[in-house]
Amino acid sequence: MMKSEMKKRFTFLMAQAAVGMALLAGAVMTCAQAPKPIQGTITVIGSNTLSVKSDAGAITQIKVPSTAAILRIAPGAKDLSAAAKIQFSDLALGDRVLVTPDPKSTDATAQALRLIAMKQSDLALKQQKDREDWQLRGVGGPVKSVDAASGVIVLTSGSGATAKIITVHTTKATVLKRYAPASVRYDEAKPAPIDAIHAGDQLRARGTKNADGTELAAEETISGSFRNIAGTIVSLDAAGGTLVVKDLATKKPVTIKTSAETQMLRLEDRMAQMLAIRLKGGAAGAGGNGAAGGPRGAGTGGGARSGGMGGGGFDPQMMLSRAPAIHLSDLKKGDAVMLVATDGTTEVSAITLLAGVEPLLEAPTASQNLLSNWSLNSGSGAAESASQ
Fold first, then answer.
1. Predicted pLDDT at 363
2. How many CA atoms, within 13 angstroms, populate the side-chain half-sphere of residue 48?
3. Chunked mean pLDDT (size 10), the chain, 388 residues
4. Which distant-in-sequence residues (6+ apart) come within 8 Å of 290 by Cβ?
5. In whole angstroms, what is the distance from residue 159 CA to residue 315 CA?
6. What is the per-residue pLDDT for 161?
7. Which of 38, 33, 40 is CA-nearest to residue 109?
8. What is the Cα–Cα distance from 200 to 223, expressed in whole angstroms?
9. 111: closest CA among 58, 57, 49?
10. In sequence order, which residues have a C-beta less than 8 Å from that of residue 333 and are 6 or more positions away?
11. Comparing C-alpha atoms, which of 302, 294, 301 is closest to residue 386?
């Protein structure tokens, strides 16, 4: 009798387990089949359709039915508490959108369940304010040391007569971000603890400076590991946006990817020779190894723009800022280049590329430090687009 009861109970428990497993499997299948959100910029608007271009360049067609919830938020909003309901007709080309596709739709074209939009004009205004804030309250450069226990990060900033040591103080309230692998986009950066930052990394911070700019109480930082490369072009694919460079340091080829965000410049012969003479003479006091990253376009963080060519006011950063821009198609096999890129061994993404550098390669260490500091603090781009 007891054995019979135990057998019945065992059968019942097994049946319960089977039902539970089936429900769990169904839930997993449902999650696995849920379509991913679509994020990007509106490039085409139809009667009830949109074309959305992602940051990676992929274009997705989206149907927006009348039942879809369409909301507008301000750049920098952390949630939807202040979101305003708008109509499809309120959307405009250039607006940033985050679309949640309807998981129940069987249409081959994605159908929006909810669409959250940011006006292009609002975003541009926010980016401009961020740029100005990074310029006014930002510092940056290669990391010399990190004391995670006290929250103190020591940087070098600038070069030559403008070089200085900056102590960055962080607290539990400081927003700490780190670039994603193979990315120099601020909006792809992820939260990371202070012990993820290491000597040789590049870091930008903004907050409250002391009177001489040697200390900063940080509200936000962003850091990353980057690489300096100097060498000659082995091959070039202008259409594909890539080139292969033989690294003078490792004697090995490195594939370099470029994008619309890559800054490419060419030094004029006279400028390159003058820089080389200064650097070989030790006037440039390089600011440490490491490469550039951080909120480019956000100012020098240490007043590295003052001065000129003469005497103690020699400012190589200003000289670089005057170099003309070029395109990948302007380069050819055998050209010497220096660049700052994402960290990697055989394949990297270029942040800044400088051509016309043959004289500078005679002083490679000082030259690379020069490019690192300048690339970190100049150019088009990146971190101020944080609120996209």
1. 65
2. 10
3. 50 48 45 78 95 89 96 90 95 95 92 95 88 87 94 84 87 93 75 94 93 95 88 94 92 91 87 78 41 37 34 58 89 92 82 88 64 50 38
4. 142, 143, 200, 201, 202, 225, 226, 228, 372
5. 8
6. 60
7. 38
8. 10
9. 49
10. 233, 234, 235, 236
11. 294
Enter the tokens of residue 295. Answer: 């909120």
Residue 209 φ then ψ, to 5°? -95, 160
Tokens of 11: 């059968």
Instruction: Give the closest residue to 272 by CA, choosing from 178, 137, 367, 159.
Output: 367
Two tokens, residue 331: 């380069």
Instruction: Annotate 299-357 with DSSP letters as a single string.
Output: --SS-TT---SSGGG--HHHHHHTSPB--GGG--TT-EEEEEEES-SSEEEEEEEEES-
- HSE of 69, CA atoms in CB hemisphere, 13 A: 12
Give pLDDT, residue 315.
60
pTM value is: 0.61
Q: Which of 128, 127, 135, 297 is nearest to 213 (CA)?
A: 135
pLDDT for res 187: 74
Q: What angle do CA 246, 250, 256 make, to 5 degrees?
A: 40
Question: What pLDDT sits at residue 368?
Answer: 58
Contact between 222 and 174 under an 8 Å Cβ cutoff? The reply is no
For residues 41 and 60, the answer to whether their CB atoms sit within 8 Å is: no
